[in-house]
Write a structure and sequence with these properties.
Blueprint (H helix, E strand, L loop, with lengths): L1 H7 L3 H24 L37 E2 L8 E8 L5 H10 L4 E4 L1 H4 L3 H9 L3 E4 L12 H19 L5 E2 L8 H9 L4 E3 L3 E4 L2 E4 L10 E5 L4 H15 L2 E2 L2 H4 L5
Parallel strand pairs: 1-6, 2-3, 2-9, 2-10, 3-4, 5-6, 7-9
Antiparallel strand pairs: 7-8
Length: 261
């Protein structure tokens, strides 16, 4: 009411100017609402996305690991072919965007799953498996194996393999010890549980950054560690940028770890 009184005492020309300006502003807001419906970004916000680079397939080298009474430890593949190996651990964070991302890239990734976390939603990992991933062993409960006795380690490893076979229809052939902690009992227990190799890593991605154990870039044969964590999408994007930069492709890890018969 007070504003109306103030408006009434303004000079006529000023009142007309204010009415015209208000009308123009209102019409502009109306056009903006029409062009940008609620919930949709404006044209300014839309950024063109680069096309997904198609992955390539390479035949594994003929290198084989000598047969021995314990599972050997592998942290890198000896090859000159332009391939690296992406592994994702644990299974705590289950981001549907990661499923779509991996499906688009057709990367044959390796999932080292802890049943304690995977059991919260087995179907999530089945979706990734259906897109070409393999399910491998990361123990039942994510305990540090070198803190356990031989029998306790065997229970953790064999139990995880039994559960994976029950859920996914195939027994794991690779083990990644939680935290990278293992001992001689780990290798022996893994072998007794049908594991062909204990797999470590030569590079990792965390918090959107690629970290290297040697050098400053990925090289052929690197086994890359990643986790199902809240920043998994940033990690996947960082990894993709690095392999494109270095002219590398993702290969299936278990195809390249061969044990002498």
């Amino acid at each position: 009411m007070r504003m109306r009184r103030v408006f009434t005492y303004l000079p006529k020309k000023l009142r007309v100017a204010l009415i015209i300006a208000g009308t123009i502003m209102g019409f502009g807001m109306f056009l903006l609402l029409i062009k940008t419906p609620p919930g949709r970004p404006s044209a300014v916000d839309l950024k063109p996305q680069p096309p997904v680079r198609q992955n390539k397939t390479f035949q594994p080298d003929n290198t084989v690991l000598p047969k021995q009474p314990t599972a050997p430890v592998v942290s890198k593949i000896d090859t000159k072919q332009p391939v690296v190996f992406l592994s994702l651990d644990d299974g705590q964070q289950k981001d549907d965007r990661a499923v779509d991302f991996l499906k688009q890239r057709q990367w044959p990734v390796t999932l080292f799953l802890t049943d304690k976390y995977a059991s919260e939603n087995y179907n999530y990992f089945k979706k990734i498996e259906q897109n070409g991933a393999s399910i491998q062993n990361h123990t039942l409960s994510h305990v540090f194996l070198n803190d356990l006795t031989y029998n306790q380690q065997k229970s953790e490893i064999c139990g995880a393999s039994d559960k994976a076979n029950q859920v996914y229809g195939k027994r794991p052939t690779l083990l990644r010890p939680p935290g990278g902690f293992y001992d001689n009992n780990t290798q022996l227990a893994a072998y007794e549980c049908g594991i062909g190799a204990v797999v470590m890593w030569s590079a990792k991605v965390d918090g959107g950054n690629v970290q290297f154990q040697q050098g400053d870039h990925l090289v052929p044969g690197d086994i890359v560690l990643m986790h199902f964590r809240p920043k998994i999408m940033e990690d996947l994007a960082a990894f993709e940028a690095e392999i494109i930069k270095q002219g590398l492709y993702v290969a299936r890890l278990e195809d390249w770890i061969r044990i002498e018969p």
